[in-house]
């Protein structure tokens, strides 16, 4: 396979365009070179990036693929007319039919995140991240009534990254609490969680996978042994069943999939987006 | 403005589609109701969601907007032919021209994250999150040679959320270290950072904004006073200038914008995507 380059051109961070472009490219077996060019928001910068793309296209002997999110129509026009790559306009492709449908024109406001740093939505996201960090791994039982979700599960079942993802992507205040051998002996969830059971959500994991993960951390420990992993997982699952806590297995799921399932199932009141 | 509903229909989490759809809708002044329907991966589920959309469209008297990422052509065909909403097919719109350009057909593989939980990319992201957590706020100087980036700056300048974002979104191992009064007195960056100066990146912030943020945490403290904030910020900036560390101001920037700028400027070797 000869070389081929994919460009992501945006007037903002280009993160949305690149993530979306990647999920489209994942449908193909080819592995092109990726180049991101964020903050392309002046005529000069567009000309510079057009020169770069045209040079690459000539060198490689095949059109570069150019995923574009440019709001300014002047900048977009320069790119579309002068660029020798294959331009995929991710924005206007959908903006134009929506303008017709809504019967109004769009703002042509640059960048999803422009000036967002002072918006309520952004402040809430940062606050959610701070909350989730402060309530990681049962560190604090303070202000649990403010939590939107409390993840529970045995150590290394995926609670921490899922909590942080919920906070960062969705502005959800996600606390997490480990279920530990003491809880299994008492046959009850940690006392501080009892008043908040309705917002608890459990993560479980296949003992074999848990054993692998724990062995990376503490090789050959009792903690990581398959017998102990089997025991803890079985105890945690029966506790969640007994307490009526919804749960899912993180074994074959990414944090995105876990987070999406949690949001679908418990529908926190304050879903940001 | 009458009611209007926007649906995000996906066979996976739908997160990419929703984030991207939101950035398109942000170009319009209308504020439609958002409904996400993830994991729509069977004929039955498609029929159910079509009934829901058609019902909404009838109730509201205007077509629902339906952002769709469905890979399976049978499911997509049902939706396209039977749904009375306005279907915006975010996937095939770009897949089809790319199939022509590449001269190959696409995989029609469902979901960007399917079975990703065991992939190297996913493992690396989780490892980066764990690394960033373990190296938050100068907690550990261990394994700093493994860091891709080390953020430095005064307390509450935005280092923690930016580090976590770099890890979660880009699989970047981002440590962060506070610059504290002791460092300013010694007129030198923390000793453990000295060997790693090339991967340090500074965050600064307007003293007025810093004062606001710190006052939320510790109202009326010396720590939060405008005089102290001015002093710390001036000291930190002159230290970074002296040490030759690149830096930017987080005052009017979101974590996405800060992260994108960092990646553009220091180009860590192992950029995941």
Written account of the structure:
The structure is a homodimer of 273-residue chains. With 273 residues, chain A is an alpha/beta fold. Chain A is built from 10 helices and 8 strands. In chain A, helix 6 crosses helix 10. The first copy, chain A, starts with a strand and ends in a 7-residue tail after the last helix. The mean pLDDT of chain A is 90. Chain A has 2 domains: 98 residues, Rossmann fold (3-Layer(aba) Sandwich); 149 residues, Rossmann fold.
User: How are the strands ordered across the major sheet of chain A?
Assistant: 2-1-3-4
For the record, the CATH class of the largest domain in chain A is Alpha Beta
Give the N-to-C terminal Cα separation of chain A.
40 Å
Q: Mean of the pLDDT scores of chain A? A: 90
Please state the oligomeric state of the protein chains shown. homodimer
Q: How many structural units, i.e. domains of chain A?
A: 2
| Greatest interface | A-B, 74 and 74 residues
Question: Helix content range of the residues of chain A, please?
Answer: 40-55%
**SSE ordering of chain A:** EHEHEHEHHEHEHEHHEH
Count the E strands of chain A: 8
What form of chain A results from the Cα inertia axes?
A: elongated
What is the architecture of the largest domain in chain A at the second tier of CATH? Answer: 3-Layer(aba) Sandwich
Estimated radius of gyration of chain A: 24 Å
**Which structural class best describes the helix and strand composition of chain A?**
alpha/beta
CATH topology of the largest domain in chain A: Rossmann fold
Would you identify the regions of chain A where 5 or more consecutive residues have pLDDT less than 50? none
Largest sheet of chain A: 4 strands, parallel
% residues in beta strands of chain A: 5-15%
Number of helices of chain A: 10
Enzyme class (chains A, B): transferase
Binding site for ADP (chains A, B): 153-160
Family (chains A, B): Belongs to the pyruvate, phosphate/water dikinase regulatory protein family. PSRP subfamily.
GO molecular function, one term (chains A, B): phosphotransferase activity, phosphate group as acceptor
């Amino acid at each position: 396979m000869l070389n081929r380059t994919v460009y992501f051109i945006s007037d903002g961070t280009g993160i949305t365009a690149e993530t979306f472009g990647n999920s489209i490219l994942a449908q193909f077996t080819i592995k092109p070179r990726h180049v991101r060019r964020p903050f392309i928001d002046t005529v000069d910068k567009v000309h510079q990036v057009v020169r770069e793309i045209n040079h690459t296209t000539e060198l490689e002997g095949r059109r570069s693929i150019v995923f574009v999110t440019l709001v300014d129509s002047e900048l977009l026009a320069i790119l579309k007319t002068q660029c020798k790559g294959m331009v995929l306009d991710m924005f206007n492709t959908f903006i134009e039919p929506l303008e017709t449908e809504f019967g109004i024109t769009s703002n042509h406001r640059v960048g999803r995140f422009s000036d967002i740093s002072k918006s309520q939505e952004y402040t809430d996201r940062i606050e959610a991240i701070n909350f989730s960090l402060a309530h990681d791994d049962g560190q604090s039982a303070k202000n649990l009534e403010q939590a939107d979700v409390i993840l529970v599960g045995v150590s290394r079942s995926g609670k921490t990254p899922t909590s942080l993802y919920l906070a960062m992507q969705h502005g959800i205040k996600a606390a997490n609490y480990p279920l530990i051998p003491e809880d299994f002996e008492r046959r009850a969830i940690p006392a501080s969680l009892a008043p908040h059971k309705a917002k608890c959500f459990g993560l479980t994991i296949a003992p074999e996978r848990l054993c692998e993960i724990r062995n990376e951390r503490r090789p050959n420990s009792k903690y990581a042994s398959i017998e102990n992993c089997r025991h803890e997982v079985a105890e945690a699952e029966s506790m969640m069943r007994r307490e009526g806590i919804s749960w899912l297995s993180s074994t074959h799921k990414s944090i995105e999939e876990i987070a999406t399932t949690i949001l679908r199932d418990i529908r926190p009141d304050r879903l940001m987006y």
